[in-house]
Specification:
487 residues; mainly alpha; Serine Threonine Protein Phosphatase 5, Tetratricopeptide repeat; two-stranded antiparallel sheet; 17 helices; 10 strands
């Protein structure tokens, strides 16, 4: 980790990690760092590094592990138990004083504060307007994404109240200082309106910016993936027509769906899948070039040359998920899932039991954020919920037929069609951070069966535990902060 960069003016109590530069520096002041266009690009790259770190963390598995796509494989001693880093979350027993996700909350706002410092100074420097617009566009898109994700984790869904007047988040658009700024939480409606505004402004800046010299561009915010992310936000806001409009633009302007015959090989490859719109590259140590963190650490199975397990990670696939695939589905054990027998301690002694793992993240992979498949599923859901069922069915079948050429649906409508689209989202977007949020925004219960060994395997909607607590440190330092209900 680089050191000595004085860039953290945060309203939260945490050590000030650096955001500004991917290279080691000593005692660079804010004024010096942000006095040039090059300094702003370096600052933005630093923010990307922290952003990548954040989404290679426990946050990546939150939605899948909490909602039942995951069960916990045995550890190296053969004991099958919940990952201790996730146990309180899995049990719905998070506490504001001891939250597994406190660092996610705090780090998100640190990155937002760093972005706001960039945005507050970019207009005052010399440089081509198109270059400055590129910095603004990426910074605004990142700010919108972080706030939107905080909304997903820390607030009830948009339709929890009739006008989304329930408690939202702090939405920071200016740099904050400890002891001087005490921002209040907005409503959910106000919070989402600011997310929308940031994304729309980012899209405008992208349209008047220089080209992004970074390659591959899929690792960075751009006009196309910003539109894609806004289509997701509109889905969460239940603005169906807007979600259809943005999804359609991305489908028309973006990459083709990855062909069925390349799907498995591309997921197994280190490079992003061809239909990826945004994937966060794994953070790289600048000193020795090693990957500092990767989402594969949750799912990877390490084997020898004879395919015997040397080490397995804890997050295996539940039968709740794997049973949703037919045998001919490329996303099943016919392709993207693989089963291994692992020595497991049972009441009868040690047994070799089957555990199935996804192969989407096999080796030092980055965190997938959004890809073209979601655009078809976003649009299908929005079509179905506005009565355009034939169009919804067409989009749904694009995804189903890619996975299994015999899976076409021809006669389904009403709530059955909506439910099938949600099931297809679970199949297609498994392990990419969607299930819990899809259930929550559709006011559905959390039901975990296979691998759930605790008393609370079901959480009925609505419930205060559909949101996490605001960390105690943020409550203590901000006199205007209101804790979530139930904590």
């Amino acid at each position: 980790m680089k050191k000595g960069i004085l860039f953290c003016i945060c309203f939260i109590l945490l050590s000030c990690d650096d955001f500004l530069d991917r290279e080691p520096v000593e005692q660079i002041s804010i004024d010096q760092q942000l006095s040039t266009l090059e300094g702003h690009f370096d600052a933005l790259n630093g923010a990307y590094t922290e952003f990548e770190e954040l989404y290679s963390s426990l946050r990546f598995i939150y939605a899948d592990a909490l909602a039942g796509n995951v069960k916990f494989a045995p550890n190296n001693q053969g004991i099958q138990s919940i990952d201790p880093r996730f146990e309180a979350t899995y049990r719905f027993e998070e506490q504001e004083s001891d939250s597994n996700f406190a660092s996610f909350y705090v780090d998100s706002y640190q990155i937002i504060n760093a972005i706001n410092l960039i945005l507050s100074r970019i207009d005052a420097i010399d440089g081509a307007e198109a270059d400055k617009n590129l910095i603004k566009a990426q910074a605004l898109a990142m700010r919108a994404f972080l706030h939107a994700d905080l909304l997903r984790v820390y607030t009830q869904p948009y339709n929890f109240t009739s006008n989304a007047s329930h408690l939202g988040i702090v939405y920071n658009t200016e740099p904050l200082q400890i002891g001087e700024d005490f921002p209040s939480r907005l409503t959910v409606a106000e919070s989402y309106a600011l997310v929308e505004a940031d994304y729309l402004q980012a899209i405008d800046f992208f349209g008047n910016s220089s080209d992004n010299a970074n390659q591959p561009e899929v690792f960075y915010f751009n006009e196309l993936n910003t539109k894609a992310l806004l289509s997701r936000v509109y889905l969460y806001m239940q603005q169906w027509d807007n979600s259809i409009r943005l999804s359609s633009q991305v489908i028309e302007e973006g990459p083709d769906l990855t062909p069925r015959n390349l799907l498995v090989s591309q997921w197994l490859d280190f490079n992003p899948i061809s239909e990826a719109l945004l994937e966060l590259g794994p953070p790289i140590d600048q000193n020795d070039g090693t990957v500092r963190s990767s989402v594969s650490t949750y799912f990877q199975v390490i084997t020898d040359s004879d395919d015997n397990i040397i080490e397995n990670k804890r997050y295996s696939t539940s039968n709740d998920l794997s049973s949703l695939y037919t045998n001919d589905d490329i996303r099943s054990t016919s392709g993207l899932l693989k089963t291994y027998f692992i020595s497991t301690q049972t009441s009868s002694g040690t047994e070799e039991l089957p555990f199935t793992f996804t192969q989407k993240f096999s080796d030092r992979d980055g965190a997938i954020v959004i890809r073209q498949s979601e655009m078809f599923l976003n649009r299908a859901e929005a079509f179905a919920k506005t009565g355009r069922e034939n169009e919804a069915l067409n989009d749904l079948n694009r995804i189903k037929l890619r996975a299994n050429p015999d899976a076409e649906l021809n006669s389904i409508s009403g709530q059955d069609l909506i439910d099938e689209i949600l099931l297809e989202r679970r199949r297609e977007l498994a392990f990419e951070g969607h299930l819990f949020f899809d259930l929550k925004r559709n006011n559905k219960d959390i039901i975990r069966e296979d691998g759930c060994t605790i008393n609370l395997c079901r959480l009925d909607y609505p419930n205060p535990r559909f949101v996490l607590p605001i960390p105690e440190s943020s409550i203590l330092i901000n006199q205007n902060m209101i804790q979530n209900e139930g904590y």
